[in-house]
Amino acid sequence: MQFTALQIAQLTAGTVEGNAHVAVASFGKIEEAKEGQLTFFANPKYEDFLYRTKASIVIINDTYELKQQVPATLIRVPDAYTAFATLLSKYQEIMQLQLIGIQEPGYRAKTACYGQNVFIGAFTYLGEHVKIGDNCKIFPQVYLGDNVSIGDNCIIHPGVKIYADCKVGNQVTIHAGSVIGSDGFGFAPQADGSLKKVPQIGNVIIEDLVEIGSNTTIDRATIGSTIIKSGAKLDNLIQIAHNVEIGNRTVIAAQAGISGSTKIGNGVMIGGQAGIVGHIQIADGSKINAQAGLGKSLKIPGSVVTGSPAYDYNKAIRSQSLARNLPEMEKRIKELEALVKQLLKEKIA
Amino acid sequence: MQFTALQIAQLTAGTVEGNAHVAVASFGKIEEAKEGQLTFFANPKYEDFLYRTKASIVIINDTYELKQQVPATLIRVPDAYTAFATLLSKYQEIMQLQLIGIQEPGYRAKTACYGQNVFIGAFTYLGEHVKIGDNCKIFPQVYLGDNVSIGDNCIIHPGVKIYADCKVGNQVTIHAGSVIGSDGFGFAPQADGSLKKVPQIGNVIIEDLVEIGSNTTIDRATIGSTIIKSGAKLDNLIQIAHNVEIGNRTVIAAQAGISGSTKIGNGVMIGGQAGIVGHIQIADGSKINAQAGLGKSLKIPGSVVTGSPAYDYNKAIRSQSLARNLPEMEKRIKELEALVKQLLKEKIA
Amino acid sequence: MQFTALQIAQLTAGTVEGNAHVAVASFGKIEEAKEGQLTFFANPKYEDFLYRTKASIVIINDTYELKQQVPATLIRVPDAYTAFATLLSKYQEIMQLQLIGIQEPGYRAKTACYGQNVFIGAFTYLGEHVKIGDNCKIFPQVYLGDNVSIGDNCIIHPGVKIYADCKVGNQVTIHAGSVIGSDGFGFAPQADGSLKKVPQIGNVIIEDLVEIGSNTTIDRATIGSTIIKSGAKLDNLIQIAHNVEIGNRTVIAAQAGISGSTKIGNGVMIGGQAGIVGHIQIADGSKINAQAGLGKSLKIPGSVVTGSPAYDYNKAIRSQSLARNLPEMEKRIKELEALVKQLLKEKIA
Predict the structure, then answer these.
(1) What is the CATH class of B3-97?
(2) Which of C182, C219, C333 faces A333 most closely, judged by CB atoms?
(3) CA–CA gap between residue A218 and residue A237 (Å, rounded)
(4) In this complex, do A199 and B122 lie within 8 Å of one another by their Cβ atoms?
(5) Helices (H), B26-106
(6) In the predicted model, what is the mean pLDDT of residues B320-340?
(7) pLDDT of C321-346, one tens digit each?
(8) What is the CA radius of gyration of chain C?
(9) Which residues from A are below 8 Å from C277, CB to CB?
């Protein structure tokens, strides 16, 4: 799809400087963009590139004063970065709206149903009583087990597997390879030393506006539901164990892991590769830093912890800094020992 | 499927109190259960819920004395939790037994074969000489490479990929998205700085009664076999490198990683996100705590280690506690320095 | 496929000792090999096995002097291990060359095209304008989104998902379940506390000779490209965030994670479960040890860091060793305190 400078000016409520009929078909960074591409200029650090960019159109701040001539057509807006991002969002929406239809071959149980304007890719499996809402885009090779329901306006990327009985809300995006609803990890040791599986008959509930990255795993509850609340955002390769609850708008970075039955509050931020033990509570607005290993509940909203085992961030920073200088501290102790020994010796003498 | 209170009493060897003909079709927690659901009451903490649960049937201990009337039909048993869990297991078995048949479209090489009462889901790929035992449930979108063999009573969840030549025993469960038999990570640096791939021609052997979580990866051996021994249980997102051996009934939590050629004993417990270096041995019954980084063999059975680098748990706990208080320790050294300085000064004076 | 001792001697430029017509069909380790298998003997530690191996053929060093009779046919070469490895590589190449053809059912957009001698497995999805080079082996259940291009001589294992617009070079191998091109993790907090998705419209470029393990995730760039440079090798379950660059021949072990926009130099080694913060640079030839948590750029080529937070390896080793002995250090401080107290007391007296 092509857009002229004039069309882009209309979409961004901007004004054109230069050839209004020049057209672009894709996007680029100002330092890399080629002819036929649209870019933006906002960060003064990249000023040099502005004057020699090969991009055909540059979105630029109203207030910026040119120091020399610019080869590209300019579109003047109050905030170039925001205008560019808005444009990208609109473009992606347009592209997605065009994605409609049912590809073959597919497997769709007779009791499965779906709404209007959906896309269902090839090799996708819809089990018995599966329900898919309006405007959903279900990419190829997805598996939706029996009784799975998906709300409206969801994007389920290729190869996602959702086990039976799980529920997905509206405007949810799940990236490729993620697994929703696999069994929780529960085995009861028996008298003979063997491990008996604890049946996992709960499900996973994913509320509205959630985004889940690629190859993340969310286990079903033993009984009841593992819940990812509205607006939460999960990155790639995250482990969410059985019966966990993740609060509204909580953000979890890649490779973090949450153990069974832990309840995470709203607006919590969890860093990459952090690990959280089972059966604890994390208060709203807390921050668990990358690679932290958290073994205790955080009861005070807005707590910040770091380290493994994790504790208060400010204390931890001081202790970590001293730990790095332990050789120096050891030297000071040695010196003290020598001096005290000397004092004792002289006293005796 | 529906069950009456009378049927459930028979399955659990219990006795009915109330309407024996009321029926349930699913399970719930006592605080959440709805009409038409079965629940249990065992933990006194939930006593309040017992008297106002909407569940139609509650399994309850023989010894519990009611303090007021209960709306639900009760089933009295010696141990409510165990009876409920047993019932769930039986229910899941019944459901699985009903899952029989070959879905289309599928790809099944002419030399592939399978036993009785199997389920093979749509879009599943069976390579040349694949063998699948009796009562296996192979879900949709599974890949079984050439010469893969699967024993009896296995459950292979959607999207599992098993590379050529790997062997799976009986009563094995593998969850969605796991990869069995990908190449070990081996590259030999060459004189010109390039990295030449070391061919990985071994396989993976998974013995009986093993359970593997979702999106876990188990690499094939360079030569010989990577082995997961009988009764071992692996959680989600675990990395098992080439030529590793995991002992009988060893349990590994999510996101742990075991490097190449390491041999883990029997009954070992490995915590979440723990990492274990290559080419070492872990004695039977050892415990490696969550996020530990183990760089040396554990030769004494029942060893417990923690930390990164990992060492003896009891020692580590004391050191970690002191490390957290390093600012306080530094203050004590400073005070000592001041006092000694004072003593030296006075001595000279 | 069967090979006689004579054929193997020709392939390895070796000489036969024993029956030149005995044939083998597979490979084994000297301690496990069975009749009909080929093995090698190089490590004196395994000498005992040489004299009782059941292997039909053993590749052995020219210089090794037999101490007793060996049941197997021997093939004498200058370097047994190298000869064996070379043979394995040749064998795998032969096997792969035989893998040719298009399996059905498949989904191939009309605008998708592919070169000569390709294999495309069943249930594989080729989107619009997909290009696949010569001699590529695309296994079953792979997803290649619109405009994806794959060079020559690539192996894409089962279930790999490559999102639209990503580019893969020549001689690239990607293992099962890996996801290339999922959205970067970017959300802008809004005034009302909600999180607005930052559109991710870049792509991933994978250059020549790269190998990627199983269930690894590589996110597309926000704008521009996430780049894995020529000859880099990535293990399983690795997270590469948006706009990251990985240098030539850099090696990354399993479960490591690289945050957004970080640039890793050439010939860098990153250990398992290491985590690297976003927006930093790592100089060529640096080494980041397993489980390290790196928060700052490494500007000096050949830097070695360890720990979380990570710092200079040699310093860290000394500090970690002292940290382990903190209880002993605390005892020394206590003794000093007692002695100084005594000295002060006596002074007053």
Answers:
(1) alpha beta
(2) C333
(3) 10
(4) no
(5) 47-50, 80-98
(6) 92
(7) 999 999 999 999 999 999 999 888 88
(8) 28
(9) 290
User: Cis (ω within 30 of 0) for the bond into C78?
Assistant: no
Q: Cα(A51)–Cα(A28) distance, rounded to whole angstroms?
A: 15
Amino acid letter at C180? I
pLDDT digits (tens, 9 = 90+) for C269-281: 999 999 999 999 9
Structure confidence at residue A94 (pLDDT):
83
Radius of gyration of chain B (CA): 28
Is B187 in CB contact (< 8 Å) with chain C?
yes
Task: Tell me whether C313 touches chain A (CB under 8 Å).
Answer: no
Residue B185: enclosing H or E segment and its boundaries?
none
Which residues in chain A have their CB less than 8 angstroms from residue C212's CB? none
* CATH fold group of domain B160-309: UDP N-Acetylglucosamine Acyltransferase; domain 1 (2.160.10)
- Which value does ipTM take for this structure? 0.91
Distance CA C100, CA C97 (A): 7
Considering only the beta carbons, identify the residue of A143, A224, A237 that sits closest to B158: A143
- Pairwise CA distance, residues B306 & B288, whole Å: 6
Sketch the domain layout of chain B as residue ranges: 3-97, 160-309, 324-348
Beta carbons within 8 Å of A290's beta carbon, 6+ residues apart: A253, A271, A272, A273, A274, C275, C277, C293
With CB atoms and an 8 Å threshold, state whether B175 touches A179.
yes
Chain C residues near residue A211 by CB distance under 8 angstroms? 187, 197
Rounded to 5°, the CA angle C268-C269-C271 comes to 150
Interchain CB contact of A242 with B (< 8 Å): no
Q: Write the CB contacts of A348 (distance below 8 Å, at least 6 apart in sequence).
A: none
pLDDT tens-digit map of C104-149:
999 999 999 999 999 999 999 999 999 999 999 999 999 999 999 9
**Pairwise CB contact (< 8 Å): C217 & A237:** yes
Q: State the smallest CA–CA distance between residue B173 and chain A in angstroms.
A: 10
CB contacts < 8 A, A to B, total 169
Mutate to test the interface with C, among A212, A324, A347 (most CBs of C within 10 A): A324
Check if the beta carbon of residue C151 is closer than 8 Å to that of residue C118: no
Quick: pLDDT tens for A221-256: 998 899 999 999 999 999 999 999 999 999 999 999
Can you tell me the distance from the alpha carbon of C200 to that of C179, in angstroms, rounded to the nearest whole number? 15
Q: Find the radius of gyration of the CA atoms of chain A.
A: 28
Using the Cβ of B341 and the Cβ atoms of chain C, whether some distance falls under 8 Å is answered with no
| pLDDT surpasses 90 at B105 | yes
Residue C96: what pLDDT? Answer: 84
Rounded-to-10 torsion of CA A50, A52, A58, A59:
0
Distance to chain A for C117, nearest Cα, Å: 25
Partners of A308 on chain C (C-beta within 8 Å) are 308
Tokens of C128: 């619009």
Query: Is-cis flag, bond preceding C309, omega within 30?
Result: yes
Considering only CA atoms, which of A271, A179, A193 is closest in space to residue A226?
Answer: A179
Contact C198, C221 (CB under 8 A): no
Q: Pairing mode, if any, of strands A187-189 and A195-197?
A: antiparallel
Cβ-Cβ contacts under 8 Å for B194 (sequence gap 6 or more): C209, C231, C249
Q: Which of residues 118-147 of B touch A (CB under 8 A)?
A: 121-123, 139-141
In the structure, what pLDDT confidence band is assigned to residue B349 with cuts at 50, 70 and 90?
Answer: low
Whether A215 sits inside 8 A of C105 (CB atoms) is no
Residue B90 contacts C where some CB pair is shorter than 8 Å: no
Q: Which of B242, B196, A239, A157 is nearest to C125 (CA)?
A: A157
Quick check: A322 and B336 CB within 8 A? no
B21 counts as catalytic = no
For residue C332, give the chain A residue with the closest CA: A333
